[in-house]
Amino acid sequence: MKKEIMAVGLADLTKYARIVDAVGSEKAVDFLLNAFKIAGDSIIKYGCRIRKYIGDSILFTSEDPFKAVSAADEIVKSRLPEINSLSSEFSAAVATGETILAKIGHPSYLTDDVMGNSVNTAFRMAGFNSGINVLMDENTYNMVKDKITASEEIKTKFKGMEKEIKVYRLIGVKRAG
Predict the structure, then answer these.
(1) Residue 123 belongs to domain spanning
(2) How many folded domains does the chain comprise?
(3) What are the residues whose beta carbons fall under 8 Å from the beta carbon of 26, sequence distance 6 or more?
(4) pLDDT digits (tens, 9 = 90+) for 99-120
(5) pTM for the structure as a whole
């Protein structure tokens, strides 16, 4: 078990259930694999690490919050191919804080996992994200605010969490040069 301060990103595919209903599971899985390839390429490009896939979502981490926000921004802006005239995009959330890296599971099947409040916050923000946006918690925002443009979206209390948090919506990443 290892504790680290990390940015935790979650990219969630929108409208995936409609795609499954329209084209069936096999074609939907092919679509999902392609979407994960596109998102994964962005995650790797920015030096982040893919941690796991959860349904139609991909969880990733970085020791550098700016790299996580940049990867999330590129993922959200990526164009996914249509399938049977249906489109889907990613929304994303990034939260930064103490995380625990550990092997979790039954002794016969342990898997590497990442846990902590930043993981929970990223999941809650992703569920709160109503559009094709990147949302950030206040910790992430404070660490990257000189390199991005953002708006304060809302101060809210998520289910199962004690404190209210400020959620910021990424408007853009400032590129060097």
Answers:
(1) 2-134
(2) 1
(3) none
(4) 999 999 999 999 999 999 999 8
(5) 0.92
